[in-house]
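so i finally got all the pieces together for this one. its two components total, 587 residues if u count the protein bits. some of the lines might not be protein, just check the labels. i wanna see the whole assembly predicted at once instead of chain by chain like last time, that was a mess tbh
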Amino acid sequence: MESKGYKYFTWFNNTFLIFLSLLCIFPLIHVLALSFSSSSAASAGLVKLWPVEFTLSSYEYVAAKTEFWRSMFVSFQRILIGGFINFILTVLLAYPLSRETREFKPRTFIAWFLFMTMLFHGGLIPWYIVIKEAGLLDSIWALVLPNAVPVFNVILLINFLKQIPKELDEAARMDGAGHWAILWKIYVPLSTPVLATITLFSLVMHWNSWFDGLILMNSPENYPLQSFLQTVIIQQDLTMITSGDLESLSEISDRTLKAAQIFLGCLPIILVYPFLQRYFVKGIVIGSVKG
Amino acid sequence: MKGSQAPLYLMVIPGIILVLIFSYGPMFGIVIAFQNFIPAKGLLGDQEWIGWENFLYVLELPNSLRVLWNTLYIATFKIIFNLIVPIVVAILINEVRMMGLKRSIQTIIYLPHFLSWVVLGGILIDILSPSEGIINLMLGWIGIESIFFLGDNTWFPITLVGSEVWKEFGFGTIVYLAAITGINPELYEAARIDGASRFRQTIHITLPGMRMVIVLLGVLSLGNILNAGFEQVFNLYSPQVYESGDIIDTFVYRIGLMEAQYGVAAAVGLFKSVVSCLLVSISYYLAYRFADYRIF
């Protein structure tokens, strides 16, 4: 039996939480609406959550810019190469470290070697100088090699691999399988859910990173998308819009253009979001409150 | 049997080399904090050693204390609200009985976590604009004068903490909801038989059931006391709010990469790294002692 007071509470609680969720999503919807509205409607403050004087001009304008497509290409290059390197190195580190010390002698030492990097950082300046002296500035490798080993993901995977029954391992050895075969034919297929989680972790990390692109790429041609967006949306770099363009197009303004680019910048994340949500929640729970 | 370990060594080598270069390299590179560093000579070159001079120089800069204070102030409020808001919201979500509604709420509130600060910064700059932003437009409807959230030194830190919590609170609820799911349902059963109301059940069963996780996350967040959120501040601040919003990381960025005073910036970075390392180590130790938390 639920009391009358609890009924009121339930009603109030549901309303409050719906309001809270709308608070999370409305800013995004507002910007999306702006991106499809004409510049006059936008500057008159008419646009709320639905486009006013619907137009695709802002998107057409962005789509005609080679700078935009070039940085999009750099971003995809980055997530493919970076994601692949992260995946391989995470698996290759986690497998030996999930073994006991008697099976792999330097296990404890290497685990501490990795853990130390979570405790102490050299800081921005030495980090920049090391990458510069490695001769990586202005190349895609500057964006993927310094992030090549995601230590947190390695730890997640180690903890998962430890739970795989030892019998499987012993049976495989009886059949004459070596470490490489055991890793790729037994351990990797068995850890698909965790591997999916950490791969998504690393892909999102690579997609969303902008600061390293901004300082490690000397020429804007090598900017990944988020670094490019940082310069046009945040730094108000107006070189993207030449004055002649604006005179000929009354439909768009700096504001609607920015809105369109903001939306395009998060579109890939929104597209993979259903998967993200499912796996991320699992990964976070495995990682933080493991038994 | 001895030879059978060889493949394992082979597997770890590539990862170890990369960590050695890109994580340990900068750790040793921190020595430039004690040098009059000239980039052309290189990290391993013959640099001039100047002892603590860079540190003394920073201490004499007029803004140093301000920056340290801003960092502590902003980070502390972020830590507090990032801990409390998700706990409260997780308890409220747990009370939602309609499964469809519950799942929809969760799906929506996790979303901002996955967007970069460039994208969110762009959105905030637009909606908070004093002239045409929708927030100030709405404030105008109820007769409140325009607020320059990103340009006013009173409002800037509040905007930072508020938008950080807005981005992260939903995602923060995940761990607490998992902890609530782990509570033995028989406890609630027994409480109901004893006539405990829903509110009393929350106070006496749900909250104690979450205690371990709360202690754990609270302790671990101590390590962030000097992390006021570089990516966020960098995308939202401007010279007019340096007074209230300039933090250690943005300060290091400007001295080091804009003004190319590598040694000085590295000295500030070293200070931050040492303090953070101490705090993170202590927090891991406390988490290990009091919550039996082991990372491996």
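The longest strand of chain B covers residues 35-36.
Residues 64-94 of chain B form the longest helix (31 residues).
anyway lmk what u think
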